[in-house]
Design a protein that fits this description.
By secondary structure, the protein is mainly alpha-helical. Helices cover about 75% and strands about 0% of the residues.
């Protein structure tokens, strides 16, 4: 569990830096723009690897609660929407304009759905941390940014939905192999 928590602190901590422009400016001033981006990326990857490793070694599981059956259906409904939102953050379109921060909204939906459907301590720590980070970051981002420019056409949105559905289908079919939990079949 210590490795998981350390990974979350590193990964989510580095992602809080952009929310504090003064801190980011100080770090960029010290490292320079050319080193800041790779240092950010390397630190995020290290945190992510620790999260994965920490979640894998967090067994035997400590069960906090037994999730009700409806929570699996909730996750089954929310995760595809979350993935479409994540994809739409890279595709300029109406979804991105309406939601403003679709990656954060998608992460919040994904983590909420998984938090409701999992009763293990390690899952509660993992998904609770991501839910807290994504919701606080989403709210703070709404106060400091203007909406993206108006877009014409629906190409970005259609692309986001198609890619989101494809990714959701792949994740559903390979969830057991990737994460050790079968969600279909």
């Amino acid at each position: 569990m210590t490795v998981l928590v350390l990974g979350l602190i590193i990964f989510l901590g580095i992602h809080y830096i952009p929310l504090f422009p003064g801190v980011k400016r100080a770090i960029v001033g010290r490292l320079g723009e050319g080193l800041y981006r790779p240092a950010f990326a390397i630190t995020a990857v290290i945190g992510f690897v620790l999260i994965i490793y920490g979640k894998i070694i967090a067994h035997p599981p400590v069960i906090l609660w037994t999730p009700p059956e409806w929570s699996r259906h909730l996750a089954f409904s929310l995760v595809p929407i979350a993935i479409i939102l994540l994809v739409s953050s890279y595709a300029p379109g109406h979804i991105r304009r309406w939601v403003r921060h679709p990656m954060l909204a998608g992460t919040a939906l994904w983590s909420f759905a998984h938090l409701m459907a999992n009763g293990e301590l390690s899952a509660a720590v993992l998904f609770g941390a991501f839910l807290f980070w994504s919701t606080t970051t989403f709210v703070l981002a709404l106060f400091r940014e203007t909406p993206p420019p108006v877009v014409k056409g629906w190409g970005g949105d259609i692309t986001a939905v198609i890619i989101g559905v494809i990714l959701t289908t792949l994740l559903m079919n390979f969830h057991m192999h990737l994460f050790g939990v079968a969600i279909i079949g």
